[in-house]
Specification:
Elements (H helix, E strand, L loop, with lengths): L9 H7 L7 E3 L5 H4 L14 E3 L4 H13 L5 E3 L16 E3 L2
Parallel strand pairs: 2-4, 3-4
Antiparallel strand pairs: 1-2
Helix pairs in contact: 1-3
Length: 98
Amino acid sequence: MGNSASVAGRACFVAAVGSDPNLVTFRGDLLYEFRIEPSYNLAIPVHPTVVTYPKTTAQVAEIVSCAAAQNYKVQAYSGGHSYGNYGREHLEPEIDTR
């Protein structure tokens, strides 16, 4: 397990969701695996660096800005799935819009 404090841009992502710890989780956090949605295809493991749960469009905009500042790609996730877990890109921030 990694150290979530070392996630690039961590403070920016936390601020983007109004410092609400229920709206963001980082790979390496104690409850990370329990807070993210499971992958549908376990043969293709994916572990996003950051998973966010924004409540407003302003939060989405801030999250995308944080990701761009760190040269992360962003993947929106809204409950669907694909064979290859394409909604769950490895090492990239994820915005859960459900």
